[in-house]
Design a protein that fits this description.
heterodimer; A: nine-stranded parallel β-sheet; 12 helices; 9 strands; B: Rossmann fold; six-stranded mixed β-sheet; 17 helices; 45% helix
Chain lengths: 253, 412
């Protein structure tokens, strides 16, 4: 099955009994040696896995992801390493890579698509690539069946949400706050209206992220969207020695 | 170095630039530029783009800006005939004195213009980044003048080496935030200013300090800085009676260079040369010579030349001058280099330090370490082209560099 469809179906299947859970980890963090173990553990308790490609200048990320990226870079994690690792495991959960544009650009978009297919990567999230600039990458990914997941934020106008939703594939990423990753979630009535708008304008699943920290966040969000992305809070839990599975389970139920 | 001539295709590019068809509506200078920003900022960038169209050439806005530039910022700045340097170099050397502006560098032209724009747009607060501290001081002063709160992000490394400017910013009422993430210099400060803006896109205006960043910043900052070249060109014609043979400016992000070059772009006979920070050596990491040794890539919202490795990770840079210590460069410079209209060379730390000394003792002017890089390039060119007229952009004064200069003096 095509990568973008795999993502969509996995979320839709999860939606039948609740909502999809999408954990985010920075590749090779906290340790390169335990990366695959962590991926396998996550595949047992999630519907899509989001893996961060570390970048030197993560300008949409808060302190947690800045820290994990920096340490991953220092230990030599790069796209090539990530692909090599993923090629050596067989998991059924769809995988998306989150990367700033420059590492992808330097890697080369065609080679990126090829490597993604052979490593079982199904899609990409690129936080510094708005729809105005996305066509080059999107065409290559989509023609290879891979998704380019676009982001909308509470600052995005209704007409623009529609435009972005139409260009997104896999799912539509609804950022719940105006801000960087890892902040605190507080769902004001404006955010709820915004999520309802996003959901009504999107023909593909909508997943919400940025600042999802607790069970009450998930319970609240799943009323409006098809899935939730848990990033900084999971990375912090792993840092403090908790098992990823245990933490995710505590958030889900 | 022999001057390259431009082919017909590149001449058309230059004409489009002069006719203001470049940058296009997507902010492209040829293939460079663009708008690679997080989605949260796109509405704010579009609003800024609209405001520029609405106000920048609006009569009342221009009147207010010009009045402030004249009465408060000290424009027009002088053009000084550098008599002793001219004799030493065997050339006619003129200095465009941006060091004489209020707050001591060309940065005020941009900070003042953008602070006025921020007020017009109805912003409640301003954020800015700073490397050497000059843009931070200029933004703090302009915001105090206009009456809008200002937060300045500055790398911890720069805070240590530019201490006098940190206190100046605080004195001017700005909040200075030390950035301990990343490389703790200008690049990390820009990352952090963007993070602030992403978190506060509605009420905050980001005064970016150079011709970098997502569209429309490279265009906006160029427009506000091009007054340098406009004045210099007129002053040369009236004081010297002719255009210069060559114009020199230092290039970090490249705002003072774009500012002085722009008025001369259409004067084909005038050679334009940008001088980057050659640092300690040509090795990656030892310099900030982006145009000389970089590769295309995406950083801070635009596609331009960049110092990055094979994984696309941005490299740490080195320069004795904090203001040039940046791994990227404005997209318009990458464009001007690609069409062959401007050439870019580099000057090493030791050479720049030597030129600070020469300028001080010969002309009684203490130039910023950044500006001294332009002198290095000019001096080499003069030696190969005797008897010519040179214009050097003296972008700022060197008082802020005294801690560095004192250290060098004691080491010697």
């Amino acid at each position: 099955m095509l990568g973008q469809k795999r993502i969509e179906e996995s979320i839709n299947t999860a939606r039948k009994t609740g909502s999809a859970i999408i954990p985010f980890i920075t590749a090779g963090y906290p340790k390169k040696e335990t990366f695959l173990e962590l991926i396998e553990e996550l595949s047992l308790c999630s519907d899509v896995i989001e893996i961060g490609v570390p970048f030197s200048d993560p300008m949409a990320d808060g302190v947690t992801i800045q820290r994990s990226s920096q340490i991953a870079i220092e230990s030599g994690v790069n796209l090539k390493w990530i692909f090599e690792q993923l090629k050596s495991v067989q998991i059924n959960t769809p995988i998306v890579l989150m990367s700033y544009l420059n590492p992808l650009y330097v890697f080369g978009y065609n080679e990126l698509a090829e490597e993604s297919k052979s490593a079982g990567v199904d899609g990409f999230i690129v936080p510094d690539l708005p729809i105005e600039e996305c066509d080059d990458l999107r065409q290559i990914l989509n023609s290879n069946g891979l998704g380019l997941i676009q982001l909308v934020t509470p600052a995005t106008s209704e007409s623009r949400i529609k435009e972005i939703a139409d260009k997104s594939s896999g799912f539509l990423y609804a950022v719940t706050v105006k801000g960087v990753t890892g902040g605190d979630q507080s769902l004001s009535s404006e955010v709820i209206t915004y999520l309802e708008t996003v959901k009504s304008l999107s023909s593909i699943p909508v997943c919400a992220g940025f600042g999802v920290r607790s069970n009450s966040d998930v319970v609240l969000l799943e009323r409006f969207v098809d899935g939730v992305i848990v990033g900084s809070a999971l990375v912090e839990a792993i840092e403090s020695g908790l098992s990823a599975k245990k933490f995710l389970n505590s958030i889900i139920s | 170095m022999k001057r390259k001539t431009m082919n017909d295709k590149n001449k058309i590019f230059l004409k489009q630039l002069l006719n203001r068809e470049i940058p296009d509506q997507n902010g492209r200078f040829g293939k460079f530029g663009g708008q690679y920003a997080p989605e949260t900022l796109m509405p704010a960038l579009k609003k800024l783009d609209e405001s520029i169209r609405q106000y920048l050439n609006d009569e009342s806005f221009q009147k207010e800006l010009v009045e402030e530039l004249h009465q408060w910022a000290g424009r027009p700045t002088g053009l000084t005939s550098a008599k002793t340097i001219s004799k030493l170099w065997g050339a006619q050397v003129y200095l465009k004195r941006e060091d004489l502006t209020h707050t001591g560098a060309h940065k005020i032209n941009n900070a003042l213009g953008q602070a006025l724009l921020a007020k017009k747009i109805g912003a409640k607060r301003v954020v800015a980044e700073t490397g050497a501290g000059q843009h931070g001081v200029a933004s703090a002063a302009a915001c105090a003048r206009i009456g809008i709160p200002c937060t300045v992000y500055m790398g911890a490394v720069d805070i240590a080496r530019q201490a006098p400017n940190v206190d100046r910013m605080k004195q001017l009422g700005a909040e200075v935030v030390s950035v301990t993430a990343g490389d703790q210099t200008l690049r990390a400060a820009i990352d952090e200013a963007f993070r602030d803006w992403v978190s506060n896109p509605d009420d905050t205006y980001y005064i970016i300090g150079s011709v970098v960043g997502p569209h429309p910043y490279p265009f906006l900052v160029r427009e506000l800085q091009s007054i340098i070249g406009k004045e210099a060109r007129e002053q040369l014609l009236s004081q010297h009676g002719a255009l210069p043979n060559a114009v020199f400016a230092c290039v970090g992000g490249g705002s003072n260079a774009i500012g002085i070059f722009h008025a001369f772009l259409g004067d084909e006979e005038v050679e334009l040369i940008g001088v980057e920070a050659g640092g300690k050596s040509q090795n990656l990491g030892d310099n900030a010579a982006t145009l000389a040794s970089g590769k295309p890539g995406i950083l801070h919202g635009s596609y331009s030349m960049l110092l990055h490795d094979n994984d696309g990770l941005i490299q740490e840079t080195h320069s004795v001058s904090a203001g040039l210590d940046y791994p990227g460069v404005g997209p318009e410079h990458a464009f001007l280099q690609s069409i062959g209209r401007v050439s870019y060379i580099s000057a090493q730390d030791s050479e720049a330090l030597k030129q600070v000394k020469e300028c001080c003792s010969s002309e009684g002017i203490l130039p910023a370490l950044e500006s001294a890089h332009a002198f290095v390039g000019a001096k080499k060119w003069a030696q190969n082209n005797p008897g010519k007229t040179l214009l050097i952009g003296l972008s700022g004064r060197g008082d802020k560099d005294m801690p560095t200069l004192s250290k060098v003096m004691h080491d010697e």
